[in-house]
Amino acid sequence: MRLDELDRQILNIVQYSFPVAAEPYKALAEQVGSTEEEIMSRLKKLKEDGAIRRIGGIFDSRKLGYKSSLCAMKVPVEKLQEAEEIINAYPGVTHNYLREHEYNMWFTLISPSEEAMEATLEEMREKSGCEIRNLPAVRFFKIKVDFKLTDNK
Amino acid sequence: MIMITELDKKLIRFLQDDLPITSRPFTAIAQELDITEEEVLARIEKYLEEGSMRRFGVALRHREVGFTANGMGCWDVPEERAEEVGKIMATFPDVSHCYQRPRFEGWPYSHFTMLHGQTREDCEAVAKRISEATGITNYRLLFSTAELKKTSMRYFMEEK
């Protein structure tokens, strides 16, 4: 996807300092020396083109009382599609990636409680017939998804 | 522990949706909740301050904007160095997430660093620098071969 300088400038701002204001797009326009209409039409385009997934709040699951974990699953190649369908159907599964390893499916699971998480994992194991390792964090060092967009990206 | 009222839960349900791209995007939420626009904005500021909201803004599809390589760095860090090494790893700007997780049989790795780059080589170069900075030499990078799901969590839906 092609981003021009103004697109990059807008995206770099709205990732981390989206103006929490009554007229946020107008405030953004003032920051980058553009117009509210231009900002709104660019954001709509970036959303249509798939660069923007969503504009909204990104919450800290732990602070809201939820439990989160990274799960490693060992799926035989012939069962990959079936496993993907089973795992992705759970709303608490927010990310799921195939990776180059014997444990080839890695997903994150967010649940309202420890008990709910264990119950979900047990259900996933039964439905898929696959081994799933639950790896909840024991120490947190960093969570910061900041994709600085520069010229060559 | 943060106090979350019924009103907060309702507001959070709206804020985890997609904010409309209109001149006054918060007015509809305020009307739905029967509070003022200022109250909505004040509560967002409060969530950001207390950290229950990590940020308000745009969630990017990083693959679409050029960060196509995603390597999960897995590191075998001796327990007595867990804290110190984790802190060093977190200082690298290319590391977006850094956690310590339990080891299991056949899996000696305790520390996980999520690395994003334009190419695999970018990620490998960062991992090498992390290895040099920490002295941890037993590590591997698990590259993603497919993104099967990426969404935002929807909280407090089960109580609706």
Helix run count of chain B: 5
Shape of chain B: elongated
The chain-level structural class of chain B is alpha+beta
CATH class membership of the largest domain in chain A? Alpha Beta
Uncertain stretches of 5 or more adjacent residues of chain B: none
Q: What is the CATH third-level topology name of the largest domain in chain A?
A: Alpha-Beta Plaits
Major beta sheet of chain B, specifics? 4 strands, antiparallel
Keywords (chain A): Lyase
Catalytic activity (chain A): siroheme + 2 H(+) = 12,18-didecarboxysiroheme + 2 CO2
Family (chain A): Belongs to the Ahb/Nir family.
Protein name (chain A): siroheme decarboxylase
Short descriptors:
heterodimer; A: 153 residues; alpha+beta; Arc Repressor Mutant, subunit A; Alpha-Beta Plaits; 6 strands; elongated; B: 160 residues; four-stranded antiparallel beta sheet
Would you mind describing this structure in some detail?
Chain A: Residues 7-53 form the Siroheme decarboxylase NirL-like HTH domain. Chain A: It comes from Heliorestis convoluta. Chain A: It catalyses: siroheme + 2 H(+) = 12,18-didecarboxysiroheme + 2 CO2. The complex is a heterodimer of chains A (153) and B (160). Chain A is of the alpha+beta class and 153 residues long. Chain A has 2 domains: 5-49, Orthogonal Bundle (Arc Repressor Mutant, subunit A); 61-136, Alpha-Beta Plaits (2-Layer Sandwich), CATH 3.30.70. Chain A contains 5 helices and 6 strands; from the N terminus they run H-H-H-E-E-H-E-E-H-E-E. A 4-stranded antiparallel β-sheet of chain A has the order 3-4-2-5, covered by helices on one side. In chain A, a hairpin with a 5-residue loop joins strand 3 (93-99) and strand 4 (105-111). The longest helix of chain A is centred in the C-terminal third of the chain and has 15 residues, at 114-128. The relative contact order of chain A is 0.15. The mean pLDDT of chain A is 93. Chain B is an alpha+beta fold and 160 residues long. Chain B contains 5 helices and 5 strands; from the N terminus they run H-H-H-E-E-H-E-E-H-E. A 4-stranded antiparallel β-sheet of chain B has the order 3-4-2-5, covered by helices on one side. The mean pLDDT of chain B is 93. The chains are: A alpha+beta (153), B alpha+beta (160). At the A-B interface, helix 1, helix 2, helix 3, strand 1 and helix 4 of A face helix 3, strand 1, helix 4, strand 3 and strand 5 of B. Strand 6 (139-143) of chain A pairs antiparallel with strand 3 of chain B.
